[in-house]
Write a structure and sequence with these properties.
321 residues; mainly beta; Porin; 14-stranded antiparallel barrel; 1 helix; 2% helix
């Protein structure tokens, strides 16, 4: 199948320098755990929490993206210092990234119910390009530009961010791949630097219904700007139901002509999360592309558990963000 072969190779694009670029992982349920995109979110709930996510994108296509994350975060007794740990495994075609990051966030009280946090994450990632999975097609002569073996390299990585929140409002800005580390293996390259801007607000629609619209803008200064528009309702402080629309826009002028090819970059998602108990939550999202891949859905499952809750927690509504 041509489509399957193309997806096996997606993300593996030869440049004039012989390197192969890898994009940042895609998430839908970052809405419930922004630590995966912003280290300043670390400790914002002021409870010890563990979150795990598994995402299968374009299920049924060989080489389609598969991502797993595991994160832990908490805050000290005063709530002024948040700490956390993120572990990531991301596979796309012949590419793979495995990384671990330690997060630290300083949370400042800037109002009676407002906090401003500055966060930093540092860690290591192993980037792998498995040339043994590449298919030569009908040619029997190896292409010198295509690796024939498994190439990998371990590189340091850093992220930074800001996160502001009250009981009802939040906004965050972060930068991933902050320092463009370069390795000695020219066939393996770290993802480009990415910028994330997010915000949301919670409205009351009665004693048991709340509405939370939000957005996320993701920018790498080369590809089209990705924009997520989200809307959720919270029922009885227990069940989140919502939808997301993902599109691309030419917000900034870029030298790459691909940045203005926006016709086939739209998708929508249906998302649900339920608190099975006050400490245990389960989430699921169903994504559908509005392009040639519309017959292949994406699935994302998440689990979250709060190990304990401080009696003097400053955040009266920790579930909203």
């Amino acid at each position: 199948m041509k489509l399957k072969r193309l997806l096996l190779l997606v993300g593996v694009v030869a440049t004039t320098g012989g390197a192969y670029a890898q994009q940042a992982p895609q998430y839908t349920q970052y809405i419930f755990n922004e630590q995966v995109i912003n280290p300043a979110y670390t400790g914002s709930k002021e409870v010890l929490t563990i979150n795990a996510t598994h995402r299968s994108q374009w299920a049924g296509i060989e080489g389609a993206p598969v991502t797993q994350t595991l994160s832990v975060d908490a805050a000290n007794k005063s709530g002024r210092l948040g700490w956390g740990l993120n572990v990531l495994n991301d596979e796309l075609g012949v590419q793979k990234q495995t990384g671990a990051y330690a997060n630290l966030a300083v949370r400042l009280k800037v109002g009676q119910k407002a906090r401003l946090a500055l966060g930093f994450a540092g860690g290591m990632s192993q980037y792998t390009l498995d040339g043994t999975k590449l298919r030569p097609g009908f040619s029997t002569t190896p292409d010198a530009a295509v690796p024939q073996s498994r190439e990998s390299e371990i590189l340091p990585d850093a992220k930074a961010g800001l996160f502001f929140n009250t009981e009802r409002f939040y906004t965050g800005f972060s930068v991933a791949n902050l320092i463009p580390f370069k390795g000695s293996n020219l066939l393996v390259a770290a993802p480009r630097r990415h910028y994330f801007l997010s915000s949301g607000y919670v409205f009351d629609f009665g004693p048991k219904i709340k509405l939370k619209p939000s957005f996320l803008i993701k920018e790498d200064m080369e590809s089209p700007t990705n924009v997520d528009l989200n809307s959720f309702v919270l029922l009885s402080e227990r069940l989140w139901l919502g939808a997301s629309y993902r599109t691309s826009m030419a917000l900034l002028k870029k030298d790459n002509p691909e940045a203005y090819d926006l016709d086939e970059r739209n998708a929508w998602a249906a998302i649900a999360q339920i608190y099975v108990t006050p400490k245990l939550r389960v989430g699921y999202s169903y994504d559908k592309s509005l392009n040639a891949l519309k017959n292949y859905a994406s699935h994302e499952v998440s689990l979250g558990y709060t190990f304990f809750k401080k009696d003097d927690s400053r955040m009266l509504t920790p579930r909203y963000f």
